[in-house]
Amino acid sequence: GTRFLPLLLLPWLIPVEINRRRSTVDGRFRRYRLVAGGPPSGQLADRYIPPVGHQIQDCRGTGSEQRRSYHSWVKGSINDVLIPIESYHLFDPFGRRIKHETRFDYDRIPAVVELCIQAGVDFPEYPSRRRTSPIRMLGKKVIDRGGYVEEPKPHLSENCRSLLAELDTYGAHFEQPPLSASDTRRLAERTLKAYCSVRRGVRQLMKKYSVKACGYCSEVHVGPWGHNAKLCGAFKHQWRDGKHGWQDAILDEVIPPNYVWHLRDPHGPPLRTALRRYYGKVPAVVEVCVQAGAVIPESYKPMMRLDIIIPDTEEARLVA
Ligand SMILES: [Zn+2]
Ligand SMILES: [Zn+2]
Questions:
Q1: How far does the centroid of ligand 2 lie from the alpha carbon of residue 257, in Å?
Q2: pLDDT digits (tens, 9 = 90+) for 14-36
Q3: How far away, in angstroms, is 61 Cα from ligand 1 center?
Q4: Which ligand is nearest to the CA of 16?
Q5: ipTM more than 0.90?
Q6: How far is the CA of 214 from the centre of ligand 2 (A)?
């Protein structure tokens, strides 16, 4: 599965909240070990990662009443920075629609990878029907798809584990010697550039290839019609029978920005509830890269609210 290694594999961990986590497809919950507030190990983590999460009391997750809405922080992994979004791989996006009963006949792969495959990238494990004559459509109705062809068996990654789960850095030990400060900065620059370039590319591809997103949950489908697997659990509405509600996807549904608070000084005091209106937010990838030394891209500066002067807590109390 290494060929899907994201361009953005960063050897650092950031604190993230546990309550935002979603179940994966078919309701399998991923398990996380709680870290009792200990600082992340490793030199890089010590250098770049604030030792505690923020203290803004906006947790609405399970048990948050007992915590007075403080978050309960655990060590984050790559999948907390880049939220994994998977979709079914379709040999023929214009072929038969996936039914609930046939859903295991299809691989689940990162939605961005599926989009690239449909747009022409070839992976031997995930073949794609390449047509020589165009599909003829009348409105939304397919007049001529060149017939149905027999679809190849799914590849299914080892042990049926998801590719993204295999790539998760949670609990991984980074044996490599720590990077020098200048190498770290270069890596951060490269990562940020890659992130912006992938978002730009996906945005362009989505103009040509249709991507659907469920209006009730985080399911994404690359293809013209959505699918009929009844796995929508966001709202347990009996009347919908687990059916997804398909709409045209927007970029942030395919690549969730996963906004985090921007820390102007990672070594400064933790962010506080009283000052929250002075803080800015940016995508987690951007924040990690900036903390690792990357230059802040112009387009993210307004979100970081760098022009706002943050008062000290005493002052804020007087104002409030
Ligand atoms: Zn929380
Ligand atoms: Zn859904």
A1: 19
A2: 444 333 333 333 333 333 323 33
A3: 5
A4: 1
A5: yes
A6: 5
